[in-house]
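Hi L.,

As promised, ATP-binding protein:
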Amino acid sequence: MQVILISGYQNSGKTTTCKLLKEKILDQSGKVIADNLSAVGNEENEVEVQAVLELDGKIYGISSIGDNAEQVKKGCDFILEQNNQYLVDYFFFTSRSKGACHHTAIDFAKEHDSAFFEFFANNIQPNIDGFKIDHLTLEAQKQNYLDYILNAAKIPL
């Protein structure tokens, strides 16, 4: 299992990146084979992603639950349970970028993939020097970040 950790501060785009990944897989005729619908909220009441998807014979695990160490463990445990049945090829998960939450995530990543990738998410600023960036540009930047992760980790999507 190739492990990809997306860490960052609160509201930095970690969950958004996971949602874009899920959409990208589904847009290419992928299908959801396991979904934890109880993973519906975090501190900001944002809907989280916790799912296993299949596309072209590859299995993708995604867990955006990463606001604290307990949630990171819960998200990883869900994917590991699915791994027993589906043999996950790629596991994407999130955590805050410091403290017990990050330590828990790093320990999990090292245990399951000694060559894991970690990417730091940073909030895209909608205003730069008083110039407001339009919605389409912001969405393109979010998609570019996901594409960067996929290319760097050599994941064919």
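The CA atoms of residues 59 and 88 lie 5 Å apart.

Thanks again for sending the construct details.

K.
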